[in-house]
């Protein structure tokens, strides 16, 4: 009798004990970044932030990108916003832009590669994006402004930066806080320009790299600037390349592949490099898009820590990995 009771008690205790355990296992936030796989947000939906960019405000990262979910209004263009403290778990904050062709560019007009800057002086969030007609002939940037990181952003204006053609744009904020726009000027190359104090216009050109590069991304790492870009092959992946310089103004080195050429950057295209400075280490994360032109909502992300230093940069073969946001260290995921 005594033994029987204990076994029953044990079973009951175990059952109760198991319930919280099972719940935890189901709801436990992802710890692992899985390049090329579906990336669920807090609602379990695949993150829609393509061709995107990230800023850090206090201890929160905001990821903005092209919202390409199915079933949206085809006359509108959308920019999504996600928030995270660890760059792994993302909370959907909504579509902070839902815009209907503000410049009469016609049906099929484009809003691509949104990038948001936070201006300390004006305390405004300033969104830059590639704005174009459906044949990519207009080649300019649009600007929208918000008081809060999660919108809504109000359309302000559009222009060609310093009167140059501008298609793919990239964002770079240097360690001293200076904000730059990187843009692809088809006839000439890859331009780096400094934003004006209020970020609402371009102050001056810093450099023209005479290389035809899209998806421009820059990082300042241990005294050197590294610029990554892709070739101009539309949605098709190509071998992305990098160059280095001791100053943003150049001179820039020749461009070299960031990954074995035959992998076509493991099927991805650069959009930004994030520098995570922790208390033990600094990790430079390559952010790339794996485009699926026929099913854009299913386009994936390839995020991997770069091997970088002393003028060399290499994108390792993508595998699941984990980031420790506090220490800045990363490791390959085990047993996943
Ligand atoms: C890519 C570019 C994308 C998009 C696409 C259209 O090269 O990086 O942002 O414009 O071409 O074909």
Write the layout of secondary structure elements.
Layout: H1 2-27, E1 50-57, E2 60-66, E3 76-84, E4 91-100, E5 110-119, E6 124-132, E7 140-146, E8 154-159, E9 169-173, E10 179-185, E11 189-195, E12 202-209, E13 214-221, E14 224-230, E15 241-245, E16 256-257, H2 264-267, E17 269-277, E18 282-290, E19 300-305, E20 307-309, E21 312-314, E22 321-323, E23 330-332
This protein binds beta-D-galactopyranose.
Beta-D-galactopyranose (GAL) binds next to strand 5 and strand 13.
CATH topology: Tachylectin-2, Chain A
Radius of gyration: 22 Å
What proportion strand?
35-45%
Number of helices: 2
Broad shape: globular
- Oligomeric form: single chain
H/E element order: HEEEEEEEEEEEEEEEEHEEEEEEE
**How many domains make up the 3D coordinates?**
1
Largest sheet: 4 strands, antiparallel
Which structural class fits the helix and strand makeup?
Answer: mainly beta
Strand order of the largest sheet: 1-2-3-4
| Average pLDDT for all residues | 93
In the CATH hierarchy, the architecture is 5 Propeller
- What are the distinct ligands in this entry? beta-D-galactopyranose
Which ranges are low-confidence, i.e. pLDDT below 50, for 5 or more consecutive residues?
A: 1-5, 10-27
CATH homologous superfamily grouping: Glycosyl hydrolase domain, family 43
Number of strands: 23
Describe the model.
This protein is mainly beta and 336 residues long. The protein has one domain (45-332): 5 Propeller (Tachylectin-2, Chain A). The chain is 9% helix and 45% strand. The chain has 2 helices and 23 strands. The strands form 7 sheets. Strands 1-2-3-4 form a 4-stranded antiparallel β-sheet, with no helix packed on it. It has a 4-stranded antiparallel β-sheet with strand order 5-6-7-8, with no helix packed on it. Strands 9-10-11-12 form a 4-stranded antiparallel β-sheet, with no helix packed on it. β20 (307-309) and β21 (312-314) form a beta hairpin. The chain binds beta-D-galactopyranose. Beta-D-galactopyranose (GAL) binds at residues 51, 112-113, 168, 214-215, 234-235, 269. Beta-D-galactopyranose (GAL) is lined by residues 51, 112-113, 168, 214-215, 234-235, 269.
